[in-house]
Amino acid sequence: MSIRVGSRDSALALAQTQSIVERLARKAGTSVEIVPVHTESDGLAPELAPLDSTGVFVSALRTALTEGECDVVVHSLSDVPTTERPDLSLAAIVKRGDARDSLCARDGLTLETLDAGARVGVGSPLARAQLRSKRAELEPVDVLGDLDSRLARVENGELDAVIVGAAALTRLGRGDAATESFSLSEWPTKAAQGALALEVRRGDEKLVSALDHRATRLTTTAERAVLERLRDVCAAPLGVTAELDNGLLFVSARAYSSDGSRELTSSHALYPDDSKNPAAELAARIVDELVGAGVAELG
User: Fold this and answer.
1) Are the beta carbons of 198 and 72 closer than 8 angstroms?
2) Which residues fall within 8 angstroms of residue 85, CB to CB, at 6 or more apart?
3) Which EC numbers characterise this protein's activity in its record (predicted)?
4) How far from 13 is each of 18, 38, 178, 187, CA to CA, in Å?
5) Rounded distance between C-alpha atoms, residue 74 and residue 57, angstroms
6) Which pLDDT tens digit goes with each residue over 277-292?
7) Which ranges in the chain belong to alpha helices (H)?
8) How far, in Å, CA of 18 to CA of 20, rounded?
9) 50 and 8 in one domain?
């Protein structure tokens, strides 16, 4: 029996999937093959790609899975909707990579040393708000496209810097492009950033369950719970970080106004064994506190 693993047909996605395939083959003791899943957005020039392209990619992978083209699909968990599908299961969340964002700037510059007016590529409302919060005199520029195309815009002088996920740089062997990586306490990132999830048809969980990493599942589930609960209140850009420290699950969330001029932070912790649903309990505490502080006014 060969396990067919569906992957988006891009350099980063295929690199991520290859690492999963090698581990899955060792654990399952069987052959594993990659099935590239192409969408209409793959191969488009960045300016032609749809703004909601991550949703397009997730949908395409899920269609390939439900139609039997593959047995497993690999997602960047930060792209996956928080609402569960009754016919599908996120059967494994593998050990997380670097959750931080990195700055890739010309001439080895850092966020602090970029000149006023420098053009900095950002790929999300969260990164735009954070950039405005830290350095309001810089010019955020929305960027689309794959990692190499974003870095190329710095190399050719179109941008002075670009902000990208540290894990993506590492997985594509471009870690040397980073001139600075931001502390999660100062620059929290998207829920579940840096984590990969393996999705299967409901009932097929045993295919990949050996790759599930308990600590990563716990922390990313907590982050995604905060995101899901806050989205019922407002659409403010949200950075959220969860970590396990000596058995204590600590979650911190920071919501921003779209222009970065205001921000609200809430942090709570508990021992997972003391709660029936630690992710949901912490999310409720955090969002209730943010609501009481006026988060709905941010966006």
Assistant:
1) yes
2) 62
3) 2.5.1.61
4) 9, 11, 20, 25
5) 11
6) 999 999 999 999 999 9
7) 11-28, 53-66, 125-134, 147-155, 166-171, 214-231, 278-292
8) 5
9) yes
* Beta-strand pair 72-76/2-8: parallel
One domain, residues 108 and 140: yes
Please report, as a single letter, which amino acid is at residue 187: W
Q: For residue 12, what are the CA distances in angstroms to 130, 145, 165, 290?
A: 25, 11, 12, 35
Cβ contact 119:239 at 8 Å: no
Kindly report, residue by residue over 21-65, the tens digit of the pLDDT.
999 999 888 899 999 998 765 544 444 344 445 788 999 999 999
Strand pairing class (119-122; 139-142): parallel
Amino acid at 189: T
- 26, 162: one domain: no
pLDDT tens column, 124-138: 999 999 999 999 999
DSSP 175-226: GGG-SEE--TTTS--STTTT-EEEEEETT-GGGTGGG--HHHHHHHHHHHHH
Structure tokens, 251: 């979650």
Angle in degrees, CA 92, 95, 98, rounded to 5: 135
Q: Does 151 share its domain with 206?
A: no
Only one residue has tokens 């703004």, namely: 51
Which token pair is 178? 């980073």
Residues 91 and 203 in one domain: yes
